[in-house]
Amino acid sequence: MVLFDFSDYAELIPLVQNSLIAGLLLGLVGGLIGVFVMTRDMSFAVHGISELSFAGAAFALLLGYNVVGGSIVGSLIAAAIIGYLGAKAKDRNSIVAVLMPAGLGLGILALALYEGRAANKFGLLTGQIVAVDDPQLFWLVIICAVVLLSLLMVWRPLTFASLDPDVAVARGVPTRALSILFMLLLGLSVAASVQIVGALLVLSLLVTPAAAALRVSSSPILTPLLSVAFAITSVIGGILLALGAGLPISPYVTTISFLIYVICRVVERVRK
Amino acid sequence: MTKPVLSIKNASLAFGERTLWSNLNLEIQPQEFIAVIGSNGSGKTTLLKAILGQEKLSAGSIEILGKKVAHGSRNIGYIPQHRNIDAATPMRAIDMLKLGLDGHKFGLPLSSRAANRKVQHILGCVDAFDLAGKRVGELSGGELQRLRVGQAVIDEPELILADEPLSALDLAQQRVIADLLDQERRDHKSAVIFVTHDVNPILSMVDRVLYLANGKFKIGTPDEVLSSEVLSELYGTPVEVIRTQGRILVVGNHDHDHHHDNEPADRGAWR
To answer: How many CA within 13 A on the CB side of residue B132?
Structure first.
């Protein structure tokens, strides 16, 4: 079997135009929110949310509703539960560990009962390329715009609250409202990412790029910019490579994002 | 007399049956340094929370500059207990100082030239020019607390609340931080409420002591409050206050209430 075949590449690109736009947006959102996921120590929570998002999407598929909508509902339920019950990191980890298999199980049940196209099923778990249609893209643009604008608006107080909640609250920063808002934005970002890279690999978009950026920069301005650059490189690179191979997009996205992380660690080591 | 920075009137706080303190009256003037002392569970930290509006009083009122505080205040600078910051946090010492100035403002962390000048000034005040570009997660305990003092005073607050800022620091570091805070409150005319279980590192700068114990309290100068008679009455059990080499030691039969068993007595631990 051929891993890459770029002979008819020029004709294929227009087919994935929607995916490329979606990838660009997700890279932007994932790279930015990832920085906060790291500073707030919520990497594991992202995984938990993505499994419930998958369950929501799978049920929407089964019942014939909008898949993006189902994915958002699942995400937000998970984000609300984790945000409400898991204020402390230790509680949070156990809650996520309980939610994760439950979500995955429900999702697989829904997929097993679904009698439509098999590609639809598999896509939710491992990502898809050409399957981003216009209405889906429309939803993604809306979600990403909401997350992006909100995030930029609360960037500074959220940074303060993430670093030092006690000090921030004393200075009048509404830390509680911010943490609820953050969970909401995280839920939306996960729901959007599930559409492209699939539920299993959301971390590679929402965590790995930020984790890599943190290895090489400590500036609060440069770190998110690098994180976004890494995330976009991973998604767009992954889509373009997957196109030549006719395989699911996720192995490419995750490999690129993993390699960037490894390189950043090496750079960090060499600098010291 | 000038307008008080903080005025606590007939304040009581109780959780169910347990009363932490009741009928507390306290007015704090600009530049005054108040030490709040008491064993764990005596309601020291709860008092700070009540001042910040995070804990509801059972009775009475607390006002800062004549206004009730609901959710924190820009007039307050806050210094927390030392706690390590995750090494991966993307923030340098200067960024942390800047948050004390504009962390409550919405938007992106872009700062004006005036803000940068102020940050440079405070860096000098807390002797941290060499730390400016370092990651906060890589600072030592003493360095971090120095920056926290800077972060608390950078916006020139009228009131500084410090919640055991010296815990987990060694004696030399304790002195540096305490002196720094003393200097800053004089320069900026800020009142200070300093919660601690050991009064010794700050004894020379304290104007008044608020001593909390057994649901009761005593307010006065260190000499008035830190005496065998007063503390024996407060605890309801014989307590001896020993003054030696400019330090104060409290010795009593209530040791099990206190939490300094692991510190050597010759360090002048507050017990």
So the answer is: 11
